[in-house]
Amino acid sequence: MTTEIPAHDLPLWMRRAQRGVDWGVVFVIVLSLIAALPFLIQPGLPRTNASENYVFRASDYAQAISEGFLYPRWSPNVFGGYGAPIPSFYAPGPAYVPALIQFFFTGDAVSAVRVVYAASMMLAGSAMYAFVLRRSDAASGVLASALYVFSPWLVMVAPHILGDLPAIMSLALLPSLLWTVDRLIVNRRGTDFLLATLCGAGLLLTHLQYGLAGFIIAAAYGLWHRFAVNRATRLHWLAIASLLAVGLSACFWLPALGEQSGVTWHRAGEAEFLSLSVGELLTPFRPVDPDELVHTPQLTLGLPLIVFTAASIIPWLRQPAETGFQRLFFGAAVAFIGGGVLLLPGESWLIGPVVLCLSIACTSVLKWRLPGTPLLYSLCLAAALGLSITAWTAPRGSGDFGAVDALAQVQYEQLGYGIAVLPAGSAAPSTLAPALQPNQTLVNSYTSNDIQKIGVSTQAQIGVLGHTTHSDQFQIDSSASASLRILTAYFPGWAASLNNAPLTIEPDSATGLFTVDIPSANSATLTVFLGTTPIRTVAWIVSFGALALLIVAALRRFAQPQEQFVELTLLTLPQARFTAIIVAIGGGFMLLLNAAAPSSLTAPPGYALDGSTPLRARTEVGLEALAYRLENRQVAAGGTAALTVYWRALRFLPANYRTQIHLQDLTSDERLPLSDLRHPGHYPTQRWLTNRYVTDRYRLTLPEAAAPGGYTLSLEVFDCTISCAPQNRLNFFDQEGEYIGQTLALITDLTVLR
Questions:
Q1: CA distance 579 to 569
Q2: Could you tell me the maximum CA-CA distance found in the chain, to the nearest angstrom?
Q3: Which residues does 131 contact at the CB level (< 8 Å), separation at least 6?
């Protein structure tokens, strides 16, 4: 007679062995690889979004690491070579990770950034599956991963349109944090405690806002588990892990917080203001137009999440006890949407946590039928992929990205493109005087790679011995004491020594640079270097202290193992077969779209111009106003009008031209500027490619005092190389070459209502 042993009485190793093959994780890895495919098969990266800036910054970090500076705090090539403490105030993760990959593996910053994008997208899907699998089942995990990695924000907008590397890395770390938190509060093992702490610190070192959102979601999940799943759940280890994560990241945030009063902030280039709204969140994603040079960011949740959220309402109402996990994340998504739309409309990054929460919440659609029925799951997975297909065609990158060295960064800035290591519109910290002009000798020295960081001196003979990202060395020969002007922006931590003897440096309040006083010396070596400060030392003490406590606490948990077996519901064989077919079809289609890209499967070039009003007004320099679009020709005084102008470069444009919109009263002929002078489309015209159009969007606020009646909206284009004076306006001509004037009338029948 055979006695069957109950499953719960079997040893843990035997219970694990009986689980079978977890096909779900294989399919999720393949799905994530499909989402990351454009970064693997397309050459280079685009130079029309922030990916370009992260390539420059990663190159700087790799150079600093090769020089022995393991935590860079200085960008040496910005502001005409004077430098700025940009790494001191921006989270290091998005530059440090690709810099390490470049240093150890690729030797190329572009390839390293592409690897980080692809790896992050794969980690995002895998971590989402691992988390949902533990709390629900494998079918829900696969569906949640598909909804997550193929959401427009993660598969297209953040990586390919915005080039937001910190967001993509954070979207990988968020589900990783939730997975480790779930393991920590259930298993309470040393490994789980270590991973939860490191994930939390990684988020803070990558994107502070995402880190805060991750901590809020993790805390809400822990409390839900405590009161809805197991009242014996102890959350003190989660609290300790959170505190240690904050401590580990203190090397970044503590000096940034303590030293921010010593800098002023300057805007780096121009960027369009992105605003969250319920209407746009619920708008389906439109395919990218192949003819558009700088693609339009769409702050939408995407059709899959919209449809699946609506379909999840019935299970939430009919089966509240079985869908508590999903309803928790739906509530979190609603809270983030409400906070973003009502309180922080300019914080577009909030879409990331919303997509994360909704991807988990929408798995309740699988409760429509009995568990184990493969048909519903297969239909849901196919729908999740099929409804997201408009976001599958990624814009083409540049096969030849170009140089990313110090000279390229200085030229980038000199050409008026912004600051190479910062995305357009970011705030750049600086200690320089606003009126300080670039030193032409310093700028020119970048061409010969013999960078001159000392101003001309008649008191000493100076020779350059070496230049690194954080230091300079000079050979000094002086018969008398001298005061040398260092062409580097002053920042706490800069120090100098002469033959290893410390010298006093003096900040120059008139310029923001600093000087070094040296005694008479014959063939002495002057070293100027960026050292530490008391607050940076304290920050490192805090970080190393947190690391020591983490190790001690983890070892303590290792010494007190709390081994628990978590039953996992894996994919059934029919579910696995259906999934394999769907994934194979999806992979083939993604490969077809992004490799061969037949025109019959992609959006037609120029389709976004459909419905606009043609202009075809050309200037003498080759800049052409193609068309415009106005939402409403009747606007109340004090209201806003949404105007879009489409531009095109007929040939290379020799300068960075700027545009301005005016409102003219048809009765009094009074003209009023409605916009500031800016790059059309927020992209410098010298960078435009021929026969690719640029979308230039305006949100025009009409004056409260505008009298009711008829008005004209017109635009002017300025060549601001010398000054943006009226005499430097460009001339417009029609298609036949007839002169129009320096003012181009767009709308002549705009009505202002009272």
A1: 16
A2: 106
A3: 141, 175, 178, 179, 182, 360
Question: Which range has the worst mean pLDDT, 176-180, 400-404, 420-424, 696-700?
Answer: 400-404
In the chain, the amino acid numbered 456 is V
Distances, alpha carbon 452 to alpha carbons 198, 473, 486, 754, in Å? 42, 10, 9, 62
Angle at 484 between CA 482 and CA 488, to 5 degrees: 165
- Edge-to-edge strand list for the sheet holding 521-530: 461-467, 471-478, 521-530, 494-498, 501-503
N- to C-terminal Cα separation, the chain? 93
Contact 682, 657 (CB under 8 A): no
pLDDT digits (tens, 9 = 90+) for 663-676: 988 887 788 899 99
Sign of CA dihedral 154, 158, 163, 168: negative
108-112, long-range: CB within 8 Å, 24+ apart, which pairs?
109/55, 109/56, 109/58, 109/59, 109/62, 109/404, 110/44, 110/45, 110/55, 110/401, 110/404, 112/58, 112/62
Q: 439-530 adopts what CATH topology?
A: Immunoglobulin-like (2.60.40)
> Rounded CA gap, 622 and 523, in Å?
57
Cβ contacts of 434-442, under 8 Å, gap ≥ 24: 434/264, 436/82, 436/511, 436/512, 436/513, 438/79, 438/80, 438/81, 438/82, 438/414, 439/80, 439/81, 439/82, 439/487, 442/80, 442/81, 442/82, 442/487
| Residues 590 and 37: beta-carbon distance below 8 Å | yes
609-753: CATH topology: Immunoglobulin-like (2.60.40)
**Please, which residues bridge with residue 84 across strands?**
75
How many CB atoms within 10 Å of residue 632?
12
Q: What is the DSSP letter of 395?
A: P
Domain boundaries, the chain: 20-398+539-573, 439-530, 609-753
Q: How far apart are CA 118 and CA 96, in angstroms?
A: 16
Contacts of 693 (CB under 8 A, 6+ apart): 291, 292, 293, 606, 609, 626, 646, 647, 648
3-state SS track over 241-304: HHHHHHHHCHHHHHHHHHHHHHCEEEEECCCCCCCCCHHHHCCCCCCCCCCECCCCCCCCCCHH
> Strand runs (DSSP E) across 468-503, as ranges?
471-478, 482-486, 494-498, 501-503
Same fold, 439-530 and 609-753: yes
Tokens encoding 617? 């007004």
With a CB cutoff of 8 Å and minimum separation 6, the contacts of 190 are 554, 555, 556, 557, 558, 561
Entry pTM: 0.94
User: What is the number of other CB atoms lying within 10 angstroms of the CB of residue 320?
Assistant: 10
Q: Name the residue among 281, 277, 298 with its Cα closest to residue 344.
A: 277
CA distances from 534 to 12, 508, 543, 544, 679 (A): 52, 22, 14, 15, 42
CA 607 to chain centre: 27
| Sheet containing 709-719: order of strands | 634-636, 744-753, 709-719, 657-665, 671-673
Could you report the per-residue pLDDT of 558-606, keeping only the tens digit for each? 766 655 656 788 888 888 999 999 999 988 888 887 776 555 567 888 9
pLDDT for residue 458 is more than 70: no
Distance CA 676, CA 640 (A): 15
Alpha-carbon span 153 to 416, nearest angstrom: 30
* CB of 634 closer than 8 Å to CB of 642: no
The pLDDT of residue 1 is 46
Closest CA to 481 of 464, 457, 452: 457
Q: In what order do the strands lie in the sheet with 613-619?
A: 693-701, 640-649, 623-630, 613-619, 732-733, 739-741
What confidence score (pLDDT) does residue 230 get?
Answer: 87
